[in-house]
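Notes to self, Heat shock protein HspQ:
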Amino acid sequence: MLQATAKFSIGQVVRHRKHPFRGVIFDIDPTFSNTDEWWESIPEDHRPSKDQPFYHLLAENDSSYYVAYVSEQNLLVDGTGEPVEHPEVTAMFGELSDGKYSIAAQLN
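result:
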């Protein structure tokens, strides 16, 4: 039986390794748990392994806010210390300290 251990945690601010966006983690799947359609939309030579944690992010880039689903191998700690401006952050989280938000609301 595969046992995945998440490298990152809920409330942590991270950035994508290859694409220009960052976000705060609000949920974690121990392994891939999205649709086959989503998986197949990724070019085959860029698809990450399904056998690793996947993270749900309140994400932002220079032009928009959205929810992203990202494999662990494609995330890095965001060392800027800057808050995430996604409008849902304040509904889910409290204060930002040392790159991590405190949890302010009951999460599922």
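- The CA atoms of residues 25 and 80 lie 16 Å apart.
- The mean pLDDT is 92.
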